């Protein structure tokens, strides 16, 4: 692959890009025009299949300062309760934007993980369906829930067949997120809502931590990195009107949080970790919003 192709922006087509971060043998390039960032070189399909396994949800070495071990979740199942509290707010927002009365609404989640978001949406009255690349997750959901989940690609879904499409921390994992956004526009009914969460690379904390930030260091799974500007541009090009973008936080156990901080900023995190262990605070739950992640709501027009 030539340097000109490597540096060409998938969103705006500009060939003016530069290396923003270098992590091990990978670089993260940034478009000088639209601010989109992407991983170079991209992992192969075989590389991704190795990452998306059962270990993806139980990676005990996530907080390591070794980028080779920075992927997935330390204990995804233990986060279910707190993730679903946040998901309830998102589902409520989607439902209010659709302004349905008594009619049943339909919702498709792309990259549904272990089904925690779909579980919440179904409880809220949506008819739900999910897609998931991780074969372990598809089997796990089949044994746990009754809603349909498969490894189908979005291009097999019928035109205007869903009221809402959601991607929770997924769009940055996609080989072609812009094709998925375009296909989502096709699959959504008129006035339908596309919702997704992703990292926001231009927030103060994101810029301050830079390549030390966990989401940046996940070079085995994160292929694209967005700013508010590139998010708005990609949605507008696909025929969406952005209705709301807000920063989203997360509830962590105190032990998990300080271990992650120690991996990013050792001088601060390691002393905090000693204090947490000394005072037996590892299981204390804390809600933190460093303004590094956004939830986006866009309407098909």
From TrEMBL:
Signal peptide range in chain numbering: none
SUPFAM superfamilies: S-adenosyl-L-methionine-dependent methyltransferases
Key words of the record: Methyltransferase, Transferase
CDD domains per the UniProt record, alphabetical: AdoMet_MTases (cd02440)
GO MF annotation terms: methyltransferase activity
Annotated Pfam families: Methyltransf_23
Spans traversing the lipid bilayer: none
GO BP terms: methylation
PANTHER family: METHYLTRANSFERASE TYPE 11, TRANS-ACONITATE 2-METHYLTRANSFERASE-RELATED
Name assigned to this protein: Methyltransferase domain-containing protein
Species whose genome carries this gene: Desulfovibrio gilichinskyi
């Amino acid at each position: 692959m030539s340097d000109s192709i490597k540096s060409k922006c998938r969103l705006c087509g500009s060939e003016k890009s530069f290396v923003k971060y270098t992590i091990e043998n990978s670089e993260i390039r940034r478009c000088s025009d639209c601010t989109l960032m992407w991983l170079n070189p991209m992992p192969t399909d075989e590389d991704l299949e190795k990452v998306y396994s059962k270990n993806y949800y139980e990676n005990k070495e996530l907080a390591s300062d070794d980028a080779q071990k920075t992927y997935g979740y330390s204990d995804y199942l233990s986060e279910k309760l707190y993730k679903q509290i946040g998901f309830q707010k998102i589902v409520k927002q989607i439902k209010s934007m659709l302004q349905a009365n008594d009619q049943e609404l339909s919702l498709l989640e792309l990259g549904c993980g272990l089904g925690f978001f779909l579980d919440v949406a179904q409880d809220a009255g949506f008819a739900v369906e999910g897609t998931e690349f991780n074969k372990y997750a598809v089997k796990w959901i089949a044994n746990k829930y009754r809603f349909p989940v498969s490894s189908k690609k979005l291009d097999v879904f019928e035109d205007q067949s869903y009221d809402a499409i959601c991607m929770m921390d997924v769009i940055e994992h996609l080989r072609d997120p812009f094709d998925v956004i375009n296909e989502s526009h096709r699959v959504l009914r008129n006035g339908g809502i596309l919702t997704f969460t992703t990292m926001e690379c231009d927030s103060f904390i994101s810029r301050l931590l830079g390549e030390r930030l966990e989401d940046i260091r996940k070079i085995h799974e994160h292929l694209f990195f967005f700013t508010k500007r590139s998010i708005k541009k990609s949605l507008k090009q696909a025929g969406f009107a952005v209705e709301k973008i807000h920063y989203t936080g997360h509830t962590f156990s105190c032990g998990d949080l300080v271990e992650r901080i120690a991996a990013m900023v050792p001088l601060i995190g390691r002393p905090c970790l000693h204090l947490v262990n000394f005072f037996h605070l590892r299981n204390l739950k804390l809600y933190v919003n460093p303004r590094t992640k956004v939830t986006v709501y866009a309407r098909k027009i």
